[in-house]
Specification:
- The chain starts with 13 loop residues before the first helix and ends in a 22-residue tail after the last helix.
- Helix 2 runs antiparallel to helix 3.
- It is mostly helical and 144 residues long.
- It is 43% helix and 0% strand.
- The protein has one domain.
């Protein structure tokens, strides 16, 4: 985001910032240091490079992301199972088991990343977007 005449550019929309895994407070800094699908695994930054937000709000904070990931898994499995039944009409349990295990395996990096991002964006009380933090040099408006 560039600034023109020291006026901050329009902040990134929430859905776009969510998809790009940007900081929920400033929508500028990256939450993750690596791509979603990487052979070296996913590395998460401890703090936002732009506004300094510490992502792990308290000890054990990321355990809640496991429940969000579980909800993602259930939604994905139900969708694949219903879609498979509609498309094939098969009653073979082996077809469903193999498809569901494959989907769980393929989407686990996605679920890991976006369960944490969803937890930060929508499930953490008191963590809100603060538009003044998206400026190139954040200045706290309460100081004036």
């Amino acid at each position: 985001m560039a600034t023109i005449n020291n006026t901050p550019a329009k902040p990134e929309p929430v859905l776009s910032a969510f998809i790009k895994a940007k900081c929920p407070r400033c929508r500028r800094g990256d939450i993750f240091a690596s791509p979603t699908y990487s052979l070296s695994g996913q590395k998460m930054h401890e703090t936002c490079s732009h506004c300094g937000l510490h992502y792990e709000r308290e000890p054990g904070y990321w355990y809640v992301a496991m429940f969000v990931s579980y909800a993602f898994n259930v939604a994905e499995m139900v969708t694949v199972a219903v879609g498979t039944y509609i498309l094939t009409g098969s009653n073979s349990p082996w077809l469903y088991v193999s498809l569901l295990l494959g989907i769980i395996f393929l989407l686990s990096p996605f679920n890991y990343r976006y369960s944490r991002v969803a937890l930060l964006y929508w499930l953490t009380p008191g963590l809100n977007f603060e538009p003044w933090r998206s400026a190139d040099k954040p200045e706290n408006p309460q100081q004036h």
